[in-house]
Amino acid sequence: MKALGDVRKEIDSIDDQIAALFARRMAVVGDVVAAKHDRGAAVTDPARERAILSRVTEAVGPELENGARLLFSTMFGISRARQRVMASGGSRLVGAIRDAAGKYGKFPTRGVVACPGTEGSYAQQATSILFRLPTILYFNGFDKVFEAVEKGLCPYGVLPIENSAAGSVAAVYDLMQKHRFHIVRALRLKIDHVLLAPKGVTLADVKEVTSHPHALAQCGGFFKANPGIRAVPGANTAMEAKALAESGRRDAAVIASRACAELYGLDVVAEGIADAAFNYTRFICISKNLEVYPDANKFSVMMSLPHRPGALSGIIAKFAAIDVNLTKLESRPLPGLDFEFSFIFDFEAPPSDPAVLSLLAELSEDPEIEHFTFLGAYAER
Q: Within 13 Å of residue 172, how many CA atoms lie on the same side as its CB?
């Protein structure tokens, strides 16, 4: 039996040969690009790839067939990406990111910002933290915020995207597939839900509580402890607080922020009603333009992948290969298509990272990715 040290030396020698052969293969890519250009041939040649896979999997035998297929498929993907970038003279997306990163200084302290709801909403609080002196225009619905930014009515918009207790805001993720925008900032806001009611109303009087569905979901323990109170979904925490104050009702309450009590003349009748003590909502600030600021430390991209085994795991492997930490993976169904999904990836990296830019160039030029959208490079507070 060979000693472990000797076996490792043999493996090291084999690895060195594999690395040298890989580098040699990639060096030939330039010749491949030139030859395909002269013949007017496409970068992707599925028939040739299938032939190679058939040959190499037969050579290694049934036991190693799947591993060889994965290894060579990955190598094909790397080769195709290099060919596309070389053939195009460079990635347009990477050029746009670099241009934006060199154009912008500090994130602005002023701005006209589209915000869902009304004064006292958590979105308004997030906006006032993101911008020191914002001019806020309120809109009734997340879709109207996207439209205000997309049409140029407001340079910026602020939207909730996920909560630490209730999960993703599905409506916002679905709208992300329908609108053109870029994420330029993100913020995690501490949420402090209280129960508000008109002056003189006590908890014993309350038969109905209204709020945004996410706020209701974050306070499930409160409703379990008070089974006689009915939860009624509403449009927005602050909008429901304002509506309650104007309704004259004496049997209803609302879950909202403490700021809404003073704004709308309501009393706090119960505190600490959220299930989680550490309850945070993540907000994104969007813009029509691609704006990349020097403190950017996060990326978001959206893509729809081929409906075949291994498509998603192959993309995840590409991020792992360059040691990038994926912080969020969200899937949303594509409208009108059965079992077809769009995937949103959030990952941590500075916009100057050459490995990340190379991967973005590869993904954005890959014809097998049916739709690729770069959502932004931004800082998250």
A: 24
Residue pLDDT, tens place only, 265-286: 999 999 989 998 889 999 999 9
Domain 1-89 fold is: Chorismate Mutase Domain, subunit A (1.20.59)
CA distances 151 to 144, 155, 179, 181, 240, Å, are 10, 9, 10, 10, 28
Q: Could you read off the pLDDT of 344-370 as tens digits, one per residue?
A: 999 999 999 988 988 898 888 887 788
Distance CA 125, CA 121 (A): 6
The answer to whether 327 is a known catalytic residue is no
The b/e string for 163-201 (b: 16+ C-beta within 10 A; e otherwise) is bebbebbeebbebbbeeebbbbbbbebebebbbbbbeeb
Annotated catalytic residue: which of 139, 142, 283, 345? Answer: 283
The CATH homologous superfamily to which domain 194-270 belongs is Periplasmic binding protein-like II (3.40.190.10)
Q: Which of 118, 127, 281, 373 is catalytic?
A: 281
**Fold annotation for 107-191+280-287:** D-Maltodextrin-Binding Protein; domain 2 (3.40.190)
**Residue 22 among the catalytic residues:** no
